[in-house]
Amino acid sequence: MITLVRVDNRLIHGQVVEAWLPHLKVSRVVVADDEAASSPLIRAAMALAVQSAIEVQILPLAQVDFAAVSKDGVRTLVLLRDVASVPFAFQNGLVMDQLNLGNVHFGTGRRQVSPSVFLAEGELQALQQLSAQGVRVEARAVPAEKSVDLPDLTERWSKAG
After folding, report:
1. Tens of pLDDT along 70-83?
2. Cα-to-chain-centroid distance, residue 35
3. Residue 124's pLDDT band (boundaries 50, 70, 90)?
4. What is the mean pLDDT of the chain?
5. Phi, psi at residue 143, to the nearest 5°?
6. Which of 18, 99, 110, 152 has a 20 to 30 Å separation from 51 between CA atoms?
7. What angle do the packed helices 150-160 and 121-132 form, to 10 degrees?
8. pTM recorded for the entire structure
9. If you average pLDDT over residues 24-30, what whole number do you get?
């Protein structure tokens, strides 16, 4: 059971550990990221950051069985490093009602759409396609923050150009 899918360039960090995990009351965190999975140091640091009662899986994106994670009944937070990973996960069985954009850093061709989220045109289009398939897309760094939904993100993206 997927509780939330979050895109965050930093994956597991203070906002996730201190705000999202207690808010969501998850039993498992799945980090689907090639770079994190290939680094013993990153894997160890992430695993140590999360309380021991919560299972942490850190796997390359292509090795996550998204369909199984979506159906097994375990309250799960799925963390992806970038927007480009979301359509891949979705096409490979990830069932999600909601996608949270937490921290997507500035980069070439990206425009600021919230205090912590910058999107390129292709990323915005991918999010719009997910929304058309029933996924609620929002941006907010922490649960207490007011969310910015996709129509507002799209408007802000247009005005930022």
Report:
1. 999 999 999 999 99
2. 15
3. very high
4. 95
5. -60, -35
6. 99
7. 160
8. 0.95
9. 97
Domain coverage including residue 97:
2-160
Residues 6 or more apart whose CB falls under 8 angstroms from that of 80 comprise 5, 6, 7, 8, 32, 33, 61, 86, 89
**Into how many domains does the chain fold?**
1
The CATH number linked to 155 is 3.40.35.10
- Determine the residue type at 54: I
C-alpha separations of 67 from 11, 30, 37, 85, 160 in Å? 21, 13, 20, 15, 37
Give 53's Cβ-side CA count (13 Å radius). 7
Q: What angle do CA 14, 113, 92 make, to 5 degrees?
A: 70
* Residue 61 DSSP symbol: G
User: Which residues 6+ apart lie within 8 Å of 125 measured at CB?
Assistant: none
Per-residue pLDDT band for 130 (boundaries 50, 70, 90) equals very high
